[in-house]
Amino acid sequence: MVEPGDPTRGQFTFDAGRLCLDFVNTVQFRPFTDRLELINTYDDLLAWARQATIITSDEATALAAAAQKQRRSALDALAQARTLRESTYAIFSSRAAGLPAQEADLRTLNRAVGQAMAHAGLIPTGPGFEWGWPDTVPELDRVSWWVARSAAELLTSSVLTLVRECAGYDCGRLFMDATKNRSRRWCDMRTCGNRAKSRRHHERRRAAGLGRRPTG
Ligand SMILES: [Zn+2]
Q: Could you tell me the distance, in angstroms and rounded to a whole number, from the CA of residue 98 to the centre of ligand 1?
């Protein structure tokens, strides 16, 4: 768990290629029970959304104030966002492995998509319009709506086949494979890719009887 004041708190990466996958990646070392959770409070959720630029600073201020007044609802919104994140992970992870999605995960995502659509509307942007949430007072669940919409768009798109799960044994991060020959295996060559290479190196050395510690 990240303790308050920890320097990693509130620092998120946005390199997966899609918003919904970046949100999935707010859990690190996912295969382990002592995995690292980066969204521990409703404020963390707002910090992520601010960094993702899906809410303005005015909206973040309004939502933080609303969360102070409605603590129970903010905790529910946080729990809902994390449940949505785990189902989103499960659906894309299964897809990357060529497996079908579990019904329960699809139900969770569909519920969030339904809520997002119920609040969706058109917002004028200069000469045109775009889909968004025109509520003048933003709802506490708004971050989940963005994630649900991003996941739904990716799941129904032709680039769904490019979703990958990092091959690092302890990682579980998802990303879009933008390489020409569709051969990307690691979320990051500098971390998981390098670790895998050095593991292979040690395994080869062990198999060859090298690298043993002197016994006496
Ligand atoms: Zn990785």
A: 19
